[in-house]
Amino acid sequence: MIEGITYFFTDPIAQKVILGIAIIGAVSGIVGTFSFLRKKTLIADAISHSVLPGICLGFMFVGTKDPIVLMAGALVIGWISVWLIDYLSSSTKLSEDTAIALVSTLFFAIGSVLLSVISKSQNAEQTGLKNFLFGKAATMTTFDIQVFTVTSIVIILIVIVFFKPFQLVCFNNEFAKSIGVKVKFIEFLLSTLTVMTVAIGIQAVGVVLMSALLIAPAASARYWTNRLSIMVVLAALFGMFSSVIGVMLSTMKNNMPTGPWIVFALFTFTLLTLLFAPKKGWFSIKRRNNSNQKKITEENLLKTFYQLKEDGNSEVSFHDFLEKRAVDTHSLERDLKRMVKNGFLTKKNKTFTLTESGKTEAARILRSHRLWELYLTKRMNFKEDHIHGTAETIEHLITPEIEQQLLKELDFPRSDPHNKEIPY
Amino acid sequence: MGMNDILTLITALLIAWSCSLLGCFLVLRKVVMVGDAISHSVLPGIVIAYLISTKFDSIFILIGAAVFGVFTTFIIDFFHKKLKLQEDASIGITFTWLFALGVILIALFTDGNADLDQDCVLFGELGTSFLDKIIYEGRVYGTRSMLMILPVFIIVILFVIFGFKGLQIMSFHEEYAKSKGINISFWHYTFMSLVSITTVMSFESVGAILVVGLLVIPPATAYLLVTKLPSMLFVSCIVSSIACFLGYYLSFKLDVSLSSMIIVTAGIMFVIALIIKKISSNLQVKSNIK
Questions:
Q1: I need a surface site. Which of A327, A399, B42, B99 has the fewest CB within 10 A?
Q2: To the nearest whole percent, how much of chain B has pLDDT over 90?
Q3: Which residues pair with B134 in a beta bridge?
Q4: Which stretch, A266-275, B236-245, B272-281, has highest mean pLDDT?
Q5: H or E segment and range at residue A347
Q6: Is B86 in Cβ contact with A39 (below 8 Å)?
Q7: How many domains does chain B have?
Q8: Where are the domains of chain A?
Q9: Domain range A281-424, CATH architecture
Q10: Which A residues, 112 through 131, put their C-beta within 8 Å of a C-beta on chain B?
């Protein structure tokens, strides 16, 4: 394994392959970001299936695997497929997903008919054409990589020049239209970029799986940032990283197609991101929900304490609690234990009392609750029996600043609509 | 026409009919891409089944592979609903990954074995399916692919006939079906399992990508031409039958891949239907203006 890795950084052929695949991965990440944000990734899938006949026609036309001719073929057919999907879903009663599936399989079938025609011809070069199905990075020549580099530079330049309109079209199509962006043209440009990316990517990844390289890096990047510019850069890095790892994995065994391994690396990376990304990942959302939930429960319990104290019980037993709040015994025990640890409560002979900090906190919650109730009746003309529910929710969200504003607005009131004292 | 031609044609027709009947509901319910995803995702299941049983025979293991297809819909839902990834990307990532996994398994574990290679995965081996005949006491009972798809075809027919009401109400008015107390998820998962089984059983003959063509092109053609569900099912079967006959003839004449040619023929018929539809609606608009 280690031998394999050092081999990649010393062997000139391997270096060439790595360079090529890194370019492809990066460009796919960049272009895929826009497809992803426009929710058009399945069209990217259709495009990558559809370019197969383009490549075959290009090959039949010149009889060699000239990357420029093959790319031109892919580009023309890719455009036709995009146009056809658009036409079918807008001008007939077929839905978009039907149009996508129809065009991609039909074009793929045409491509495979052409492949079997080509395989009948005696051209010695035709054997390599099947590599376009699942990809074979090792077959990239120096000339291929030069073509890829030039194409990538063109793509990146277009993205830089048109970054603003792209952004507008991705996030707010209608607004873009209203301020005079030529949305049709921008959409055409974005499809063209996708087709170009597919055209350079298929040699390494193959037409069958190319769409993953467009979707996965963008999907991962989305979980790390909210800014488009950062997202584009991240997607490029993720695409590059996963493709290189994929190619390395594919060398474990001779004569392996590279595409599946790249997809495998991409998927693993994306899954890890979706689960573990800071802020937006599954686990951090879970954790945040949990801690919010804990805070709300604590605040509710403190409030109950305060209310019981208002009724004249300053020492509260476990059973008084259960009567007042509908919670199960087990979780109540756990919550109370935690609050004793936090210093909000003290426990003596099976009864609980509020500490000083507990009192302040409980008063704050109750104040928020009652202020809000008062605000609803005074300023919003709510009926008194309609206000408790919303106040139950909002009391946990009111910040000290909002509290100050409410106090000022209501002129430091003494009691709430139910004639209970507002604690200060 | 010799016996081999007839056997191949019967296999093709059984696959085409099963797919075009189920496809109608996929098209109507706008879940074609989920069908597409399933047809790709059953690959690892098939490869594992193949590795365990060494031959394609064991029906039970193939049912297991079909479960993989339903599993796909679960994974897509997990990504979409739990991990909050947008739906199109969830579909795109899930099926490419499972398909890639299948291809990797093939490359790793089935060295130079002619029965299951990357070509078969993509295009199937319908054209040579007649080589594998089931012969009992000197009489030919059919080919293996044919006998694999026959029970599926019967199940599909029975499902469509007896489940017609449920399928219909679900395809046109899901909310109404819910309000009527129809168990939507039961119908959904039964239907998707059937799509999955059909894909697995047709897989060896037509491959993972072209089976989608049979699921979507004939129903889409029928959808353009007619409006009632029973006639849509009927027209869809007619279209796929013509595609089989014509495709068979053309692939023989031109000496090209049979399953691809069937799809291409169906595609040509779709284009013709589209043109007819456009011309007739143009004429209608003109006469309305007059």
A1: A399
A2: 28
A3: B142
A4: B236-245
A5: strand A345-348
A6: yes
A7: 1
A8: 2-278, 281-424
A9: Orthogonal Bundle (1.10)
A10: 112-113, 115-117, 120, 130
